[in-house]
Predict the structure.
Amino acid sequence: MTEQAYIPYGRQAISDEDIATVVSVLKSDWLTTGPNINAFEEVFAAQCGVGYAVAVNSGTAALHCAMYAINLQPGDEVILPSMTFAATSNSVLYQGGTPVFVDVLEGNLLIDPEQVLQAITPQTKAVVAVDYAGHPCDYDALRAICDQHNLVLISDACHAVGGSYNGRPVGSLADLSTFSFHPVKHMTTGEGGMITTENEEYAQRMRTFRNHGITTDHRQRAENGSWYYEMVDLGYNYRITDFQCALGQSQLTKLPLWVSQRQEIASQYDVFFANYSGLTPLQKLGNVQHAYHLYVVRADSIQQRDLYFEGLRNQNVGVNLHYIPVHMHPFYKNNKQRIKQEKLTNTEAAYSSILTLPIYPDMLTGNSAHEVITRIQNIK
């Protein structure tokens, strides 16, 4: 029997144009802190419809920069869901803050605004909305809560670049929005991240923070004919390279097409699951453009989920699970004094049932979504 072709849950798409763009920068004078950094930031900010974008070397760095930008201090609390990648809450701990985990909505696994409201204390400084799987959160409700209680609204939009909410692009919906350019995301710089904001002070603080807390970078000093610099705060080396940013600019031109292709693949899955009783997709609201970083389904039980996981892996389908809730990781279990946790009924129930199916634009070329469906139907 011929071995079935492997279908990963996600993968990058790199064109000859992308490669040529990167090579041209590798042959230039500036490999880091050069002109491609600003150029990428400007086009990305324009794509999101905001005034400022700050490029960094990972989505994790983007989250950490956001926490630094708002001057998060020990004792400050940040409300966020546990149904996310660990970096979301780790970034709070990096600054000495306290993550406060609240539950998600059962239908789409997005942070529940009512749970946010109930978790607010005098120590609360910010709320992090995680656009899980690429579905934007209820930003109207979250904005109203944050405005009422004088809180900063941060969007972990690492899954949702190219999406929109009520016609407004992701990246313009919060005080700060963070993005990841890991290879399995919609667009890639290899590793990389971005923060968007309308707040000039936040942008300047993050630019200093990404450069060791130093006020100028090498290129700025070269242009000014100066050697002098000042370290004004304890920062990190979160700089991204020029050739990564060149790749990001090239990839960004294809983002609308890629989001559309992901939506087309999702619609193929939707049609199938509408008449299939074994797995159920997450709900999608009508006022959003879902970016579909992930296509997540739920089984009726953990035993059923594990049956599909093993059955699809055995058929060379790279299904995955997003995520083990953060509060369930050993580090967080062993450091409960550093966090606060509300009742997480929907989060923990979801962990026992969710499964991530493959979704990436190149699947359309090989009709791979239908192949995944066929392999699902092979499971008894």
Remarks:
- The first helix runs from residue 16 to 26.
- The chain has 14 helices and 14 strands.
- The chain has two domains: 16-252, 255-377.
- The two ends are 20 Å apart (CA to CA).
